Amino acid sequence: MDKNDKLSPEDQARVDAYLALPTHQVERRPYSPWKLLMVLWAVVSLLGGLSYYFAWVNDVL
Q1: 19: helix, strand or coil
Q2: What backbone phi and psi angles, to 5 degrees, belong to 19?
Q3: For 43, what's the count of Cα atoms within 13 Å in the CB-facing half-sphere?
Q4: Where are the alpha helices (DSSP H) in the chain?
Q5: pLDDT beyond 60 at 1
């Protein structure tokens, strides 16, 4: 075992077997930061519009 190895060969074999399970082999779509940005923008806009509406209805504006 090298000085830089963090796991013994037996432990590494167990980790490799665990990661080879079908549960960990799910294909995922690539991460899309623009989609997250648009969802956040929509939520903030909706909440801002609701707060503006409630302020207008209660004669705050």
Answers
A1: helix
A2: -70, -15
A3: 6
A4: 9-19, 33-57
A5: no
pLDDT digits (tens, 9 = 90+) for 13-61: 999 999 999 888 888 889 999 999 999 999 999 999 999 999 999 999 8
What is the pLDDT at residue 3? 58
Chain-centre distance for alpha carbon 59: 40
Backbone conformation region of residue 59, classed left if phi is above 0, alpha if psi is from -120 to 50, else beta? left
Spatial distance between the Cα atoms of 46 and 52, rounded to a whole number of angstroms: 10
Dihedral sign from CA coordinates of 35, 37, 40, 45: negative
SS3 24: helix
* Residue 50: both structure tokens together: 């609701």
